[in-house]
Amino acid sequence: MDAPTSSESTDYVTQVVHDPREIAADEWDALLRAQPDGAACGPFMRHAYLAALHTSGCTNAATGWTPHWVTLRQRFSGRLAAAAPLYVKRHSYGEYVFDWAWAAAHQRHGLRYYPKGVVAVPFTPVAGPRLLADGAAARAALVRALLDQARALGLSSLHVLLDTPADEAAAQAAGLLARETVQFHWHNRHPVHGAAFADWDDFLASLSQDKRKKIRQERRKVADAGVTFEVRRGAHINAEDWDFFVRCYAQTYWEHGNPPYLNRAFFHAVGAALPEHWLLFIARMGERRIAASLVALSDDGPSPSAAYGRYWGALARVDCLHFEACYYQPLAWCIAHGVGRFEGGAQGEHKVARGLLPVSVHSRHWLAHPAFADAIAYYLDRERAATDEYRQALRAHAPFRQAP
């Protein structure tokens, strides 16, 4: 832990920690739960999740994600008043809000873009609280402390990724630039009468005839190949299940020419520490397990309000197996269990045909170089207009039937 340094506010003392375990888990999680939607944002900002990334070796200097968490404590009581998971990064992988063009522009002008600062959940395209604070004043002081750290470390930029409206307000007040990107989410809400879908057939009936026919064809291909699924949730996911999932996940990454971001130690750690957050779909062909997909769940009561499609992998090739494991099985489960929203993550226009519609997600950005800050502000204005047109064009091709 770095030596405490004074923030601009006389109410707080800023501390920087490089190992999440230096912050008490109950302190961090209490602050998270106090945020708007803090209990309903999945496991990703939970202390155990972020600590598992660190202890498993997924986030460290070697992987290009150096923890540099910023905390604010009340000066006299020592109580944790605000905190943010800041990472110093030497690349732009695993962020899902893409700034490769910004890095290339810096390089063309003889300026370095890395290292940069990122406030985010590594490898996770799920929006949620990023600037944890016990009120607006503490959140504003936290943004100032993050900018102070970025300047002190000589970072080219600071990026608060996939944040919430409360984060947005504080970042806007501090002058950070706004960026809007698109994700694909499914909502358990009939497009005509607005009630939750009664069952899978009710969902299919809400789709246009061609989309309904295509989904049935895709599901039939998987069934005709002899593939069946079993679903395991929470503590019913055992060590053997996690090992099988990791094998599928890693092999699929390697088949696409990339090393997996996450490792066996991480998945075992979050499975043990946060069992209530996980839902595992395992595909079988006869007695043989051939594929698995992992879904995360929100933590806001017996019936989760949201589910998040996260990772999948397969050891055998079956036509349309990816669609079945990653969309149709999870959506059917959400309908059966009254889950209100399924987030399919970033990218993938093919998701629209399956009922996942484009939604806006937001980030905030600070650039150290004044000329680049001006240029990127201009670029973001134009990008927002293009993103809005893109989202509207995709929504015009929504798969749902028109109201009679």
UniProtKB/TrEMBL annotation:
Highest taxon listed in the record's lineage: Bacteria
Gene3D superfamilies per record: 3.40.630.30
Pfam family, one: FemAB_like
Protein name: Peptidogalycan biosysnthesis/recognition
Organism, scientific name: Tepidimonas charontis
